[in-house]
Design a protein that fits this description.
Main location: membrane
CATH architecture: Orthogonal Bundle
Number of strands: 0
CATH topology: MetI-like fold
Family: Belongs to the binding-protein-dependent transport system permease family. HisMQ subfamily.
Order of helices and strands: HHHHHHHHHH
Protein name: Amino acid ABC transporter permease
Keywords: Cell membrane, Membrane, Transmembrane, Transmembrane helix, Transport
Number of helices: 10
CATH superfamily: MetI-like
Structural class: mainly alpha
GO molecular function: transmembrane transporter activity
CATH class: Mainly Alpha
């Protein structure tokens, strides 16, 4: 007897709720990690642009660590290793506030920040140095010249690679299931385990990942075109 494809078996009752919870958790994890990645990435870029060798070495070491150590290992370091170094009250606080989600956000966000910093550095290098010098000559300090003159132009240039980093970050959230975060892949495994409908369960997950990825690309393309129009 052939296999009977039954999508309704995984998209009804509690299974549908599990999928919806997984999607919401994945989107929340992506958004939180993205905000952290952008913040840290910009800070790393600003620090690296300061002409002081130890700062450059620190950022270079940070980038190389996150580029060369598997992301799953980084997540394990944050989940199993870092809390053991914290005082007891801090560990209790983390455990009481969705520790898996919190530490997965930190691991994913800090890893993505390394790539964001590299993209921003490439964008800044494409801005003529005379613009920075002109900003300093009219009274801007280092942060003012970078924040008001250089970084806004660099951000427009690096939007396409930043969209790629956002897509990568979104897909990498699936690794958080390894420490028990109930994101989409985790919930898909739950549905598959209860229904034994492996193909249907992962077909739903695949469709959701594709749909969200297309939305991210469309939003990025829209933002890219708007910023280029404003820059004219």
């Amino acid at each position: 007897m052939g296999y009977v494809f039954d999508l309704g078996a995984v998209l009804s009752g509690q299974y549908l709720n599990w999928f919806l919870i997984g999607i919401a958790t994945t989107l929340a994890l992506t958004a939180a990690a993205w905000c952290l990645a952008m913040t840290v990435g910009i800070l790393l870029t600003l620090v690296r642009m300061i002409p002081f060798r130890p700062f450059e070495w620190f950022v270079a070491l940070y980038v190389e660590y996150h580029r060369n150590v598997p992301l799953l290992v980084q997540i394990f370091v944050w989940y199993f290793g870092v809390p053991s170094l914290l005082p007891r009250w801090a560990r209790l606080w983390i455990n009481a506030h969705h520790g898996e989600f919190l530490l997965a956000t930190v691991a994913l966000g800090l890893a993505a920040a390394a790539y964001v910093a590299e993209d921003l550095r490439s964008g800044i290098r494409s801005i003529p140095k005379t613009q920075y010098e002109a900003a300093r000559s009219i009274g801007f300090g280092y942060l003012g010249a970078m924040g008001y003159i250089v970084l806004p132009q660099a951000l427009r240039i690096v939007i396409p690679p930043l969209i790629n980093q956002t897509l990568l970050l979104f897909k990498n959230t699936s690794l958080a299931m390894a420490i028990g975060v109930g994101e989409l892949t985790y919930r898909t495994r739950e549905v598959e385990s209860y229904t034994f409908k492996t193909f249907e369960a992962f077909a739903v997950a695949t469709a959701v990942y594709l749909a969200v990825s297309f939305c991210i690309m469309a939003l990025g393309d829209f933002a890219d075109r708007r910023l280029k129009l404003e820059a004219r």
